[in-house]
Design goal:
There is one protein chain. By secondary structure, this protein is of the alpha+beta class. The protein has 2 domains: about 5-150, Jelly Rolls (Sandwich); about 155-265, Homeodomain-like (Arc Repressor Mutant, subunit A, Orthogonal Bundle). The protein has helices spanning about 115-120, 130-150, 155-170, 175-180, 185-195, 200-220, 225-230, 235-245, 250-255, 260-265; strands at about 5-10, 15-25, 30-35, 40-50, 50-55, 60-65, 65-70, 75-80, 90-95, 110. Strands 1-2-9-4-7-10 form a 6-stranded antiparallel sheet, covered by helices on one side. A 4-stranded antiparallel sheet has the order 3-8-5-6, with no helix packed on it. α7 packs across α8 (about 235-245). The radius of gyration is 33 Å and the shape is rod-shaped. The N and C termini lie far apart (about 70 Å).
Length: about 270
């Protein structure tokens, strides 16, 4: 049985707003054409069964069940049902702030099985009320979210931790806080950091603070002042860690003039 039905919609949505939808079971070789000025919205046809040819300008694109073809305003298109196995398809025309993103799709594309669920099966026209537009908008938004949205840049959390420690070594820092920030397990974060940098996060924080401590001591700051500037509330704690790291106390370090000592104090990962 051949048929073609269409319904006007307009839920007045901002991002993706369906303005009409329809479905058709086409006779063999049925042809539709569209000049570039015919449509003021994007139209997606989802092919439920059968096959056909979609023409964009002078290029032909075969289309089969499970695929969709898209009509973009300002293009010349035609589409023809197959002679032996004519297609059955459903369509939705839409506008909206995000609709231009759909123009990046190829003329014909495969539709994932969990996409366009409301276009996949025959419409119940007796139940098609004002909420149908919201359902189609949901389909479009889901497709946008899974297929079209810009891919987020993968976060290099190890480098971000390096940068953060070097800038904010004087503040309270902890592995637990970094793990919460990136939504990672503490042990996993520690393993990944050590694999890339060669030391634990705690050791890296200590190295940065001791490096900066040497710099402040050379600038003439007292041990107590240097401890505070490096994020320690207690000068004795700072002195103990400094001696453990370098082999002599901050006071002895201030008294030394051998520049070879300075050369021995390296800082991994510092840029």
């Amino acid at each position: 049985m051949y048929y073609a039905l269409q319904k006007r919609l307009n839920p007045h949505l901002h991002d993706l707003n369906p303005i009409f939808t329809g479905e058709a079971a086409c006779p063999p070789e049925e042809t539709h054409t569209s000049a570039k000025d015919n449509y003021q919205c994007i139209i997606i046809h989802y092919v439920r069964s059968g096959c056909g040819i979609f023409y964009l300008d002078d290029t032909a694109y075969p289309v089969h069940a499970g695929q969709a073809f898209i009509i973009i305003p300002g293009t010349n298109v035609a589409y023809v049902a197959d002679k032996k196995d004519p297609w059955v398809y459903a369509w939705v025309g839409f506008t909206g702030a995000l609709s231009d993103k759909f123009s990046s799709l190829p003329p014909v594309f495969d539709v994932p099985e969990d996409m366009f669920l409301h276009l996949r099966t025959p419409f119940d026209w007796t139940q098609m009320d004002e909420y149908w537009g919201y359902q189609l908008a949901t389909d479009l938004l889901l497709f946008y979210a899974k297929v079209l949205r810009p891919q987020a840049k993968k976060v290099d959390y190890v480098q971000e931790i390096l940068d953060h420690v070097q800038l904010f070594y004087m503040e309270k820092l902890s592995v637990e806080a970094f793990a919460r920030q990136y939504g990672l397990d503490r042990r996993h974060l520690t393993r990944q950091f050590k694999k890339k940098i060669g030391c634990t996060i705690q050791d890296y924080i200590l190295r940065v603070r001791m490096y900066e401590g040497c710099r402040y001591l050379r600038m003439g700051y007292s041990v107590k002042e240097t401890a505070t500037l490096c994020g320690y509330s207690s000068a004795p704690i700072f002195s103990k860690l400094f001696k453990r790291e370098h082999g002599f106390s901050p006071t002895d370090w201030k008294a030394r003039t051998d520049q070879n000592v300075v050369k021995q104090i390296g800082l991994m990962g510092r840029t």
